[in-house]
Amino acid sequence: MTGATKAVSAAIALVVTLTVAPGRAVAQCPSWEDMLAEGSLVQIEAILRDEIDLTLSLVYLNPPRLGSCALGEALFEGLDSNLLSAGPPVQAFWVGVSGRSADQFSPEQLWVVQGEKELGLSLKAEFDTETRLGRMIEFAAEYIVFYNDEIDRSLPMRLIYISSIGPVSEVYRLDAAYR
């Protein structure tokens, strides 16, 4: 094979990879604003005396494209192979924490409710590793939180945080493109 033939073969392989597995290419990830608009990124705000006291930004990580877009491909692949695809059903969410009360955030107070099912925290991980979303917006902390149970990706979930000023929540609907 000549040098030109090898280059053409490599280019074709790259195009095939991006076409066959578009979710794995971080370059195709939506922007922060687009993720908010499509609902794959939601924000829960606790408001105290007409000011935002705490903001939680959340992304459901189990769909490979969303997980890769939130964390970055390498970090998601490690999470997926070591936990998400490794055993019993587990649901994972990325949480970016900001606001005046960010240092008081308690992952144990974050619940996922779907229908009659309430999922309480099973495991949490605060980390300093740079994530794709963490490069877009400055956060006081970033977490991955885990819930040991199954959910129906076609149904909405209510994400509820029990803050010091009371419960706050947001509905999370997974777009059909990610199911």
Q: Any overview of this molecule?
A:
By secondary structure, the chain is α+β, with helices and mostly antiparallel strands. The protein has a single domain (26-178), classed as Sandwich (Immunoglobulin-like), CATH 2.60.40. Helices cover 28% and strands 33% of the residues. The protein is built from 5 helices and 9 strands, in the order H-H-E-E-H-H-E-E-E-E-H-E-E-E. The chain has helices at 3-20, 32-38, 64-71, 73-84, 132-136, and strands at residues 41-48, 51-60, 91-98, 110-114, 117-119, 123-126, 141-147, 157-163, 166-172. The protein has a 5-stranded antiparallel β-sheet with strand order 1-2-3-7-6. Strands 5-4-8-9 form a 4-stranded antiparallel β-sheet, with no helix packed on it. A hairpin with a 2-residue loop joins strand 1 (41-48) and strand 2. Helix 3 (64-71) packs across helix 4 (73-84). The longest helix has 18 residues, at 3-20. Residues 1-27 have low confidence and may be disordered.
What is the compact description of this entry?
This protein is α+β, with helices and mostly antiparallel strands and 179 residues long. The chain is 28% helix and 33% strand.
